[in-house]
Task: inverse folding
């Protein structure tokens, strides 16, 4: 009990701090487009010394794709600090991804003064945050009649049903309630009946059983008279199948677009990412499953390199503790094959590490006593049982706001039907009261990975007089974080420049140089050319030892020049 | 006189001027010519599709901008930037179309004379060198600098050639009594003498010579079908280049294109691409189909790493050139990479007509084979992703001496004959004959007839590929290990090889500089090219005669009862080629042909006013459209077929007796 009181005090304290925050944000609702933009502008204004807000370009419908950069120029150059790229809602209907991004930005800035760990992180890292990638899809979701699966794709004209007409059969909000919900029609052979305990819940009929309803799909009419409903809606291009690695045309990968980066947002963001070789970790938030997904997304990508997999496993397993119930999975093996997705391009073409964060688990809305899981498994019709439980959740936690009761409607083509079902902000979205914790835990996971971007300390190991004016110098670069300065994949495919260890001094002659493979056994891999400049990298949770034999005296400077960690120098006197 | 001399020998002498690029149109001249054509002729327009990293324009000439409802042909020239003759041909074609071939006014033309202008510009550079990328800076060696170690014309002869150095690690030999070099074959007791380097110095002191020269991406390797990642010329990902995207954008915005003709280095008319293209895949482990697993002594239920499978397949077939991709292809992994079986008969026939045309033009002499389409090529993209009939043709490769045919010990088919045979024809030779044939053609002893027959039956092998294997074997024997192209060039024009002259190299020491003159394998003299183009372009006329052409006939009207009529119309494709292509149906890109019906007060009781047509085979493929109409007697009904393959209209009056 004492513990609980302690908790309550902590929560109150948090609220009290929040009340005095420089920017007040409430994560108890979903932010519409205007609020997202206003929030970004507000954060940028209030923290103008540490943020930059810029539009990476315009979407297909002319909306700005905003990027918020968090970087403290007082503690170093932007490109000299390791960076984490975070985005959300490349699928416009995967709403809460944007909230996670906004929360992360707000948290990093708001806690900068009061939390040491955050200040240290923000001073040594850069965060690039694109809260909404599919700005048109998200706008559609909020501003027009929509449903929980509508607004995923980019608005690119496409003849989905290959009938020579483009986007001619979209959904319609028939009953004018501002939502695109389900339609059902009375039909004894329709395959569905209602649940005996709750007539909102649909149950499949068993063989030999006469049913009651036929489900017709989403609200709309057959605009083109081809006997199909809503088969060629507005929107087509799945921007998470439009990236440049192992892209496949749309007859292999639906939604792929006409060629890699044919969408405005993927093009703009890819150009930005290419311009920032300091990015070493990426996050892209989606909203289904409670997963940290890594590739490979398809066989075509080949296996991830074993050293990289160890890094992923370390981070993923910690993540499973940071967000209970979330799982660290491999896209191709644990989900399905995808071609041309963002994460694959980042890892295989840009050489970064990263996760696709799938927010929301349906289990979070469980309405069940502990220990009832086994019972539930024995139930024949899992779907309707889950739906039934969800209705209880709806009634007792959300007070009926998640479901629109079935209501009669006269359809212009189909006659008397009913419209109803799970409402737009449900099914893959948290009820508002759960947003804050979800956002905090996921932001914490981003912060955890950001802390594991490489940080190299350069130290002098020893110097040894070899006689005749020759000195052996050994330096050690230590990185005690999970990320190496170069992934195994980047090394294999030369995706990024290696780190350069170099030695300089007035009149200094570098006789030989190399990477010390084993400092105890004195084994060195000498480089044949330009020994003053050694190309290598610093591993995960480890060190790299470098040796030079030089002739000369006076001040000598050793430089560690790295794209994905801050540069270091070390001076010594010979 | 041998035929090859008759057709080709004379051309060899024209080579001497090739490298100077004297008479080919430079990128600027091409643009000027295109602009002039657009301003001088009605219905001719110039479009700018992209700007290259080198600041040049990719231009497209639209001929027949006033031709509505006309099917369009998209002509793409010189996508790899290494065929000035192809650019020349596109210009000649444009001029011919506006001046002479005015009867082709039922077709719209989109002509891109330089798909890859930066590459084309490199033909005119001094010193003359063979590099074809655009001017996007690329850090090839991923060090601290970009484009810092390119070639130098050390001996000042105007050419970037080769340096050879006598060295204990040398693996090359000088061919007796000449400038040619060959790789030493240890198995034949030959010891290497020379190391070879491209002409230049180690600018950045990293121990490598010319490892990071200027030049980036070849546009013709940057298209999204069968794209190869992490190569020196393909670019970081498909369509990474402005040039590529400009072209793709234009193509997708112009669904009236029903045929793409690529003028360049490859030739899919001379030889229809065999079913041996690489699969776009790189997976890990695969099972083998039962019959092969058993034949090779493997377990059909075990998954084997692909590398092991390749090894085993090499051993089994004795074909050392077998690649991973060929095996993956066989295992059926990845996107479509072979012509659809439905399209292949048309392609074969078009190819046959091309070869007959070339024979008649006396241009069928034996010559170096044009290379297969590279990964990321535009011609393959046009078929596999854009989904239209796509052909490529080249204008020139070096003639090759026809070997005196050896005395045949038996009645065995030659590679040419085998290529013309179907798999079934070959199998029909019978086991005994095939075994004897294998022995005769030098196949490894474990290579038995029964395996070949199995491989042919399963599609793992086909006669085209067998012919290629035989030829490859033969070539090696014929040239004694010298590169076939080098040998051909030497035979045609020994002066194309520069004398090896001594040079004191700053890091290598004593070397000799010499070898093949740049571009000598790629471009004949402009004069020679002109004559070849004049002779070969008329085939384009033949090609466009094959376009799909839709008509509505016959139309039958019958009265079912008062005020109710049955209308039956057949849409027929009178062209040679189908629309869409069979693969086009699979890849879903081509816009469908649509039949519409209109008439005052007409109500369809059966049938739709708008009917989306499916694939209509060539040479009379048809689809029946049928309606039951409620209408007044005497009502005129208009039927119209419209789409990329053109427009056809007809009108019928509803009348007539009951059926």
Result:
């Amino acid at each position: 009990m004492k513990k609980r009181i302690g908790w309550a005090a902590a929560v109150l304290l948090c609220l009290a701090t929040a009340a005095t925050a420089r920017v007040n944000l409430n994560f108890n609702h979903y932010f519409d487009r205007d609020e997202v933009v206003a929030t970004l502008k507000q954060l940028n204004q209030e923290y103008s010394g540490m943020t930059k807000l810029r539009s990476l370009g315009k979407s297909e419908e002319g909306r700005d794709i905003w990027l918020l950069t968090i970087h403290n120029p007082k503690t170093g150059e932007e490109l000299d600090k390791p960076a984490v790229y975070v985005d959300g809602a490349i699928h416009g209907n995967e709403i809460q991804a944007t909230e996670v991004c906004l929360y992360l930005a707000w948290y990093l800035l708001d806690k900068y003064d009061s939390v040491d760990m955050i200040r240290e992180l923000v001073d040594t890292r850069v965060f690039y945050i694109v809260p909404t990638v599919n700005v048109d899809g998200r706008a559609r979701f909020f501003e027009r009649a929509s449903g929980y699966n509508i607004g995923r794709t980019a608005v690119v004209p496409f003849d989905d049903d290959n009938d020579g007409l483009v986007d001619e059969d979209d959904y319609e909000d028939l009953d004018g309630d501002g939502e695109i919900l389900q339609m059902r029609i009375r039909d004894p052979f329709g395959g569905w009946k209602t649940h005996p305990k709750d007539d909102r819940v649909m149950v499949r009929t068993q063989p030999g059983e006469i049913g009651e309803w036929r489900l017709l799909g989403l609200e709309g009419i057959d605009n083109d008279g081809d006997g199909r409903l809503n088969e060629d809606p507005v929107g087509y291009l799945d921007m998470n199948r439009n990236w440049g690695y192992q892209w496949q045309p749309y007859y292999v990968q639906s939604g792929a677009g006409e060629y890699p980066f044919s969408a405005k947002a993927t093009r703009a963001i890819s150009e930005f990412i290419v311009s920032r070789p300091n990015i070493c970790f990426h996050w892209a938030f989606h909203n289904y499953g409670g997963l940290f997904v890594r590739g490979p997304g398809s066989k075509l990508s080949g296996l991830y390199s074993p050293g990289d997999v160890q890094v992923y496993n370390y981070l993923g397993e910690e993540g499973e503790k940071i967000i209970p119930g979330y799982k660290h999975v491999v896209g191709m093996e644990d989900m399905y094959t995808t071609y041309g997705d963002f994460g694959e391009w980042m890892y295989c073409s840009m050489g970064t590490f990263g996760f696709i964060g799938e927010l929301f688990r349906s289990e979070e809305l469980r309405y069940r006593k502990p220990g009832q899981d086994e019972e539930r498994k024995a139930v024949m019709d899992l779907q309707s049982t889950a739906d039934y439980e969800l209705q209880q959740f709806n009634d007792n936690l959300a007070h009926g706001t998640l479901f629109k009761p079935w209501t009669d409607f006269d359809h212009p083509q189909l006659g008397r039907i009913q419209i109803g079902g799970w409402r737009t902000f449900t099914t893959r979205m948290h009820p508002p009261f759960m947003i804050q914790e979800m956002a905090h835990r996921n932001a914490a996971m981003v912060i955890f990975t950001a802390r594991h971007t490489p940080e190299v300390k350069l130290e002098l190991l020893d110097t040894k007089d070899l006689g005749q004016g020759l000195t052996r110098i050994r330096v050690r670069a230590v990185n005690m974080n999970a990320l190496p300065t170069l992934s195994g994949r980047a090394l294999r495919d030369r995706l990024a420049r290696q780190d350069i260890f170099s030695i300089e001094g007035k009149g200094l002659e570098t006789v030989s140089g190399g990477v010390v493979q084993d400092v105890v056994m004195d084994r060195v891999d000498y480089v044949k050319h330009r020994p003053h400049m050694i190309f290598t990298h610093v591993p995960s949770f480890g060190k790299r030892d470098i040796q030079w034999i030089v002739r000369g005296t006076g001040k000598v400077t050793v430089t560690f020049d790295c794209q994905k960690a801050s540069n270091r120098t070390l001076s010594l006197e010979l | 006189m041998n035929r090859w001399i008759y057709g080709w020998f004379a051309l060899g002498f024209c080579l001497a001027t090739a490298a100077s690029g004297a008479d080919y149109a430079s990128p600027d001249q091409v643009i000027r010519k295109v602009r002039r054509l657009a301003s001088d002729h009605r219905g001719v327009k110039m479009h700018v599709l992209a700007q290259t990293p080198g600041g040049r324009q990719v231009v497209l000439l639209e001929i027949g901008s006033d031709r509505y409802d006309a099917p369009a042909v998209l002509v793409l020239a010189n996508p790899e930037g290494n065929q000035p003759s192809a650019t020349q041909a596109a210009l000649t074609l444009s001029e011919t179309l506006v001046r002479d071939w005015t009867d082709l006014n039922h077709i719209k033309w989109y002509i891109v004379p330089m798909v890859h202008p930066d590459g084309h510009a490199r033909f005119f550079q001094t010193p003359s060198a063979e590099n074809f990328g655009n001017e996007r800076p690329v850090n090839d060696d991923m060090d601290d600098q970009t484009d810092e170690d390119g070639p130098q014309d050390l001996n000042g002869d105007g050419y970037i050639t080769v340096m050879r150095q006598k060295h204990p690690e040398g693996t090359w030999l000088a061919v007796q009594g000449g400038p040619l070099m060959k790789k030493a074959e240890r198995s034949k007791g030959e010891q290497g003498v020379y190391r070879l380097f491209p002409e230049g110095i180690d600018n950045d002191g990293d121990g490598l010579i010319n490892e990071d020269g200027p030049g980036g991406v070849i546009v013709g390797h940057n298209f999204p079908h069968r794209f190869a990642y992490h190569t020196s010329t393909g670019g970081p990902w498909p369509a990474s280049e402005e040039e590529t995207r400009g072209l793709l954008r234009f193509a997708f915005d112009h669904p009236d294109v029903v045929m793409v003709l690529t003028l360049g280095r490859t030739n899919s008319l001379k030889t229809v691409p065999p079913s041996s293209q690489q699969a776009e895949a790189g997976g890990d482990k695969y099972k083998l189909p039962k019959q092969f697993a058993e034949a090779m002594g493997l377990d059909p239920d075990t998954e084997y790493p692909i590398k092991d499978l390749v090894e085993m397949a090499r051993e089994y077939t004795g074909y050392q050139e077998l690649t991973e991709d060929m095996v993956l292809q066989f295992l059926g992994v990845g996107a479509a990479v072979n012509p659809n079986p439905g399209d292949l008969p048309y392609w074969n026939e078009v190819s046959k007509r091309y070869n007959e045309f070339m024979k008649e033009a006396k241009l069928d002499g034996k010559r170096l084979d044009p290379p297969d389409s590279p990964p990321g090529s535009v011609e393959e993209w046009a078929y596999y992703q854009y989904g239209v009939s796509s052909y490529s043709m080249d204008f020139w490769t070096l003639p090759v001496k026809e070997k005196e045919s050896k005395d045949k010990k038996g009645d065995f088919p030659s590679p040419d004959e085998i290529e013309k045979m179907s798999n079934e024809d070959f199998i029909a030779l019978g086991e005994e004959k095939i075994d004897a044939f294998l022995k005769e053609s030098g196949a490894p002893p474990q290579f038995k007839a029964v395996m070949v027959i199995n491989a042919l039956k399963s599609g793992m092998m086909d006669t085209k590929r067998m012919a290629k294997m035989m030829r490859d074997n033969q070539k090696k024997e014929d040239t004694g290990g010298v590169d076939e192209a080098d040998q051909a060039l030497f035979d045609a024009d020994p002066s194309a090889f520069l004398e090896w002259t001594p040079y004191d190299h700053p890091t290598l020491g004593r070397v000799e500089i010499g070898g093949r003159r740049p571009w000598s394998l790629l471009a004949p003299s402009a004069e020679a090219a002109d004559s070849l183009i004049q002779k070969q372009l008329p085939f384009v006329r033949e090609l466009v005669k094959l376009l799909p052409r839709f008509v509505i006939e016959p139309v039958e009207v019958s009265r079912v009862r008062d005020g109710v009529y049955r209308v039956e119309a057949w849409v027929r494709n009178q062209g040679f080629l189908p629309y869409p292509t069979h693969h086009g149906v699979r890849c879903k890109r081509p816009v469908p042909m649509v039949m519409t019906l209109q008439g005052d007060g007409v109500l369809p009781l059966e049938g739709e006013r708008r009917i989306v047509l499916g694939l209509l085979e060539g040479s009379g493929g048809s689809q029946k459209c049928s309606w039951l109409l409620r209408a007044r007697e005497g009502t005129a009904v208009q039927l119209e077929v419209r789409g990329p393959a053109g427009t056809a209209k007809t009108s019928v009056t509803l009348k007539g007796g009951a059926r």
In short: Residues 1-21, 276-283 of chain B have pLDDT under 50 and may be disordered. The radius of gyration of chain B is 28 Å.
